[in-house]
Amino acid sequence: MSDLIVKPFKQPNEEGTLLTVTPESAGWTYVGFEAVKLKAGEKLKRSTQAQEVCLVLLSGRANVSTNETEWADIGQRMSVFEKTPPYSVYVPNEDFYAIEALTDLEVAICAAPGQGNHPARLIAPEQVGVETRGQGNVERQIHNILPEGQPADSLLVVEVFTPEGHWSSYPPHKHDQDALPNESLLEETYYFRVQPEQGFAIQRVYTDDRSLNETLAVQNGEAVLVPRGYHPVSAPPGYEVYYLNVMAGPKRIWKFRNDPDHAWLM
C-alpha cells in the first residue's frame, strides 16, 4: 500500500477516532487531521494546546463549547452527500473544545499551528461560500469553509463534491514551493467519502521530475497525504466522491501552479 494513503482503524478507539494524521506521522510540519465518530450522548473534550482547530460537522448534530462560548444543537445534514454546507467551529490555540453528540455524529478535526489572533466562532452554513467550479466533466461543487479571506492563523479548509465520471483538482496543480507571489507552500490532506460505499476514487500524486509518481485507488473513509506535487482526482462512473481538504503552510495563502503539460486545458 502507498505511504500516501491513511487507512481508518478497524474499530474507532476509546475517543471515537476513526483515522488520524499528525505532522509526525505524515513527516511534515503543519497539517493535522482526525475523523471522529460519536454515538448519541457521547462526549469528547480536548485542549487545543499550540494548534488552532476547525471542527467540521460532517454529519449529525451536536452541542459544542469552548472556553468562552457555546453553541447548542448545531448541525443539519445527516450525510455529506446531502451536499448542503456544514456547520463548523473555529477554535484558537490555548483553548479547548467540548463536543456532545445529540445524534450519531461524525466530525472532522482540522489542525495547524495557531498564534492566538482570532477568537472561537461558529461558521454557520450561510457563511460558507458555495461555488460551482469547472464545466463539463470537470464540473464540481465547492464549499469554502475556511478560505483565506476568513480569519485564521494557518488553516485553510474546503470540501469538494465530484459527480460520477467527473474530475476535480483538475487541471493538475501544485502548491509545494514557498515562491510567492507565484506559488505558496501548503501541505494538504484529502479525506474521502464515496457513494455507494463500495466504490473508490482515483488520485494521482506526482512531481515534475517524477521522483514522486503514484496513482492511488482510494476507498471510502480513507485519507490521502499530499506533501508535494500535482494531485488530481477522478470519480469513476457510478460513484460520487466527496473529499474534505485541509491545507496549511508557512504563509496562509493559496497560490498554485498548473502542470505546464496540461495548462492548455484552462
UniProtKB/TrEMBL annotation:
<dbReference type="GO" id="GO:0102482">
    <property type="term" value="F:5-deoxy-D-glucuronate isomerase activity"/>
</dbReference>
<dbReference type="InterPro" id="IPR014710">
    <property type="entry name" value="RmlC-like_jellyroll"/>
</dbReference>
<dbReference type="InterPro" id="IPR011051">
    <property type="entry name" value="RmlC_Cupin_sf"/>
</dbReference>
<protein>
    <recommendedName>
        <fullName>5-deoxy-glucuronate isomerase</fullName>
        <ecNumber>5.3.1.30</ecNumber>
    </recommendedName>
</protein>
<dbReference type="InterPro" id="IPR024203">
    <property type="entry name" value="Deoxy-glucuronate_isom_IolB"/>
</dbReference>
<dbReference type="Pfam" id="PF04962">
    <property type="entry name" value="KduI"/>
</dbReference>
<keyword id="KW-0413">Isomerase</keyword>
<dbReference type="InterPro" id="IPR021120">
    <property type="entry name" value="KduI/IolB_isomerase"/>
</dbReference>
